Amino acid sequence: MKKSFDRIKEKLMKFKSYGYEEREGCLLIGKPSYLPKYAWLVRVFMPLTQDDISFWEKRYSLSIPDTYKNFLMNFSNGLNIFFGTFSLEGYRKHYRRDESAILQPFALDISNVYERPKNAKENYFFIGSYDWDGSTLYIDTETNHVHLCKREDATSIYEWNSFEEMLSSEIDRIFSLFTEDGHQIDENQSTLPI
C-alpha cells in the first residue's frame, strides 16, 4: 500500500512548480497567479491518528472500512482536487471561518450520517464527491468495491474493483481535463467518469 500512496503523491505533485506549501501537516500544491488568496489546485490533508479514527467512529457509531482507514491514517485525511472537482472526505475537526479552514477536508459525517441517501444499505460507507452534480462515492464494505452514485440515490452507476484503483485512475482522468496551470479545458464537459 505504501508504494501505491507514493505513486499517488507523485501524481499530485504535478502542480508543484506553481507553488507548494506544507502547513500543519497539510500539503498545499499548485497556486498559479490567477487563483484567489486561499485557493490551491490540490489539497492533501494531514493524516489522522488511531485516536482520531477511534474518536470519530465512537462519536458516530460507525466503522470506517479498513481500506479507507488506511488511506486516512497513512496518506491523507481526505483530499481536494481542483476546488472540489473531486474530493475525498475526512474527519473535519472544526468549522471555524478563518484561514485554517483550508486545512480541513469535507466531513465524512455529512454524507454518512446527515445526508445519507435513503436507499443506502448499511454496508455502504460514503467517502467522496464530485462537484459537477454532487455525485458521491461509497465503499461497499462487503466487496470493498467503490461505487459512484447520484447524490440522493445510492444505486450504483459506476464501479471500481478497489479504492486504490479508483483513486489512481480518477486522478489521471481528472488531471487530463485541466491544463498544465489548472484551467478546466472544457467547462461544459462533465467531470464524472461516465
Can you tell me about this structure?
The protein has about 190 residues and is of the alpha+beta class. It has five helices and nine strands. It has a nine-stranded antiparallel sheet. β4 (about 80) and β5 form a beta hairpin. The relative contact order is 0.14. It comes from Treponema bryantii. InterPro entries: Knr4/Smi1-like_dom, Knr4/Smi1-like_sf.
- Helix and strand element order: HEEEHHEEHEEEEH
Q: What count of domains describes the coordinates?
A: 1
Q: Structural class, from helix and strand content?
A: alpha+beta
Major beta sheet, strand line-up: 1-2-3-4-5-6-7-8-9
CATH architecture: 3-Layer(aba) Sandwich
Total of DSSP H or I helical runs spanning 4+ residues: 5
Biggest sheet statistics: 9 strands, antiparallel
By CATH's scheme, which homologous superfamily applies?
SMI1/KNR4-like
Task: Categorize the overall geometry.
Answer: globular
If you compute it from the alpha carbons, what radius of gyration comes out, rounded to the nearest whole angstrom?
Answer: 16 Å
Low-confidence stretches: none
Q: What is the level 1 CATH name? A: Alpha Beta
The mean pLDDT is 94
How far is the N terminus from the C terminus? Answer: 27 Å
Note the main attributes of this structure:
SMI1/KNR4-like; single chain; about 190 residues; nine-stranded antiparallel β-sheet
Summarize the structure.
The protein is an alpha+beta fold and 194 residues long.
List the helices and strands and how they pair.
Elements: H1 2-12, E1 20-23, E2 26-29, E3 42-44, H2 50-60, H3 66-74, E4 79-81, E5 86-88, H4 108-114, E6 124-129, E7 136-140, E8 145-150, E9 153-160, H5 163-175
Antiparallel strand pairs: 1-2, 2-3, 3-4, 4-5, 5-6, 6-7, 7-8, 8-9
